[in-house]
Amino acid sequence: MAEPYPIDDDEINVEDIEIRLLLEAIYQMYGYDFRSYSKASIRRRVMHRMTMSGFASIMEMTDKVLRDRPFFVTLLNDLTVNVTEMYRDPEFYRAFREDVVPVLKTFPFIKIWHAGCSTGEEIYSMAILLEEEGLYDRAMIYATDIDKNVLASAKKGIYSIEAVKQYGDNYRRAGGRHSLSDYFTARYDSVIMEQRLKRNIVFADHDLATDQVFGEMHVILCRNVLIYFDRALQARVIRLFSDSLDMGGYLCLGTKESLRFSGQEETFDVINTPLRIFRKRQLLHHA
Amino acid sequence: MGASWGGLNAYTRILSALPADFPAAILLVQHQHASAENRLPWLLARYCQLPVIAPEDKEEIQPGCVYVAPPGYHMLVEEDGTLAFSAGRAVLFSRPSVDELFLSAGAVYGKQLVGVILTGANEDGAKGIDYIHRRGGFTIAQSPVSAEAPAMPEAAIKTGAVSRVLDLEAIGPFLAEQVPG
């Protein structure tokens, strides 16, 4: 019960201002822009860090953020939510095999952008899928995240054996053709993903809130990233995706994420409703 | 409202007692596995005269509708009255977590909020009930004797922040009568 939740409306107002000042401090000092993130979500994560690190107020934590880079890195990891797994939502990967892969097979070269790749579990999931479908050799995967630290882990591709055991079931339900253990080497209590899966992956840092278009993509995957943004930032990012996609390119979102509030439903056709696979329209329809 | 073990039965009993013109929005968390296909909104709709919704991220909360948190996500309330989801860490092994919903809703709605904690086998929701109470909201716990699993309401009652302890059959009629339009 030690978490310092504000009680009366004035305190709530003060907390709101303090959070805005914290986000401004982060932006000015380190260039990461969380100012258009979902308030409710940011608030919960700021509270979590305050409790864990024992600060009396958000202002006290803001002071620490400004003067202590290692502490900022800790807070950054809280704010960016790096909870992921291999073949998260296995039904999505199954649908991707059925709805998207047949079209990709007709392309000579495939460019895929995975925005918000976190520690890389879903990047390797896609790399394995492409290899099993005979597409990996002509694919290039651009894996981006706002946080350089998680990108470094993604690049290493080392995961705990405990976690990977649980991914085997996801892999099978996702329509995996072999055994997940064919794609990594186990050593002591961790596994390292096979080097051949990394051959066509480029890791780069990219901030969806501030950075620009990323090239002519055939597929963009951005799953469970938009939920942390407010409506305005969501609309910006959907526009960024639409500008980064080739005509007929695919956009894959998380299962609770929607184009409904972005004002850009018209730009896309829906390929799979529950699993949120969209396709950029080939032709502009004139009235 | 939040429930865990035994929640489906509790929710059908409560929702079936609410009239079609029930004036408030209902946000509901039921602990369930992330891998489960989400049939809960469909199941509850069969017992309920109000529209039961499986919400999308940033959907606006409408009065007289029931919103069911999706498995695998925390459901939060934004200050502008929309819903936000988070796939962050499980809280007390739960995602969705009752505490996460109650803490965010408590901040936004203050004394306009009624928090209801139902049957369940862990302590999720106790912290949230305490917060709703301190924000001036009204809090209800299902009586432990009428709960399939008493731990969750017991933990909430132990905080001293529960305004009313009611048997399961009494909760729906109480809400129907007491929640103002």
UniProtKB/TrEMBL annotation, chain A:
DNA-binding listed as a keyword: no
InterPro entries assigned to the protein according to its UniProt record, in alphabetical order: Bact_Chemotaxis_MeTrfase, CheR_C, CheR_MeTrfase, CheR_N, SAM-dependent_MTases_sf
Keywords of the record: Methyltransferase, Transferase
Annotated GO biological process: methylation
SUPFAM superfamilies: Chemotaxis receptor methyltransferase CheR, N-terminal domain, S-adenosyl-L-methionine-dependent methyltransferases
An annotated Gene Ontology molecular function: methyltransferase activity
Domain (CheR-type methyltransferase): residue spans on this chain: 7-281
Top-level taxon: Bacteria
Protein name, per record: Chemotaxis protein methyltransferase
Lineage, highest ranks first: Bacteria, Pseudomonadati, Pseudomonadota, Gammaproteobacteria, Oceanospirillales
